[in-house]
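Appendix C reproduces, verbatim, an entry submitted by the partner laboratory led by Prof. M.T., so that reviewers can inspect both the input and the predicted structure.
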Amino acid sequence: MGLRFRSAEVEDAEWMTEAVNNPEVAKYLITVYPCTEHEVKEYMKKRLKEEKHKWIIAEKDGEPAGSVTVSPGEGRTRHTAWLGIYVRKKCWRQGIGTALMKEAVRVAKEFGIRRFMLGTFEGNERAIGLYKKFGFKTETTSKGLVYLDGGWKDSYVMGLDLAPCEPRITKTALPQRTKGSILTKQLQSENLTVRQLMDKDLDEVNRLQNCPESTKSTTKIPPITKEATKKWYEELSGRGGSFCCGCFENQKLLGYTQFSGGRLPFANVWVEEILIDMKAKPTATTDSLIASLIGFFERYGYHRIFGEIPETSQVIVRSLEKHGFKKTGAFKGYYFIDDHYVDALTYAYT
């Protein structure tokens, strides 16, 4: 088999469009078909500009046969990377997937990645078998995450250790849990307001994004410039499915929740980031934001809420569990916080 690897190019959009519109291929991708060649081309232009993102094409006898991406994390997750892979239908069962996996692992090691992650779905047994052959192990199971073949199917996140994630945070070093419940009267007495962000709030957002202690629940590592905060704010788009709610005491921002709302087959709410001012009413703020998130979920009839949070962010963990979120697993050593590797706990709400 004459197989070679090369970097992806915008000109690959033509065959990729054909591939991702094939029902048997698209079934287990995160895209929804039909999609046009222009749409694929614009997506490729955007991704190819990302310096750390590696997109590899496998060619068999001079013809494109499949694709694999290696996408390193940022900030506190920069030691991790996510893998994405697919093979053209006509090239199945020819060893293309195995060859792409080998190349992806090689590239990830070259990048200095310690943890390699991927997501897949119930029923994708051929791919799951391939991942297991390379040593990937299932770390989380999200029940009913995707709608396929007339029903809600489970999603799995699998991980592979490429290098030790040491030192790990110890259980005794985690903040101690305290008993608590959702106290409506307490929240009312706190005089907190949950609302949308406004242009006038940007200085407050930037202040919070530069708090070393508060940002430990996110991938962000200060300093964050005002320009970066403004760009982050301008990328929020309700029409595009990207939302943010802030919790305020008068004009002071005490925390925010960034989340996205998916469309079928992923009609769920995804928690992207929860950032809380740890010096000002963190418990009441978190409870207010989580309650608002559930209100959004119920208002628009989404299927479930999914999210992950560092195990060290116990104020947020307690609030999620108080509001009925159930733990579904953990991404091992996913965050790097205070010179230790920390698990990301995954949660779901129905």
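The domain at 171-349 is CATH 3.40.630.30 (Aminopeptidase). Additional entries are available on request from the coordinating office.
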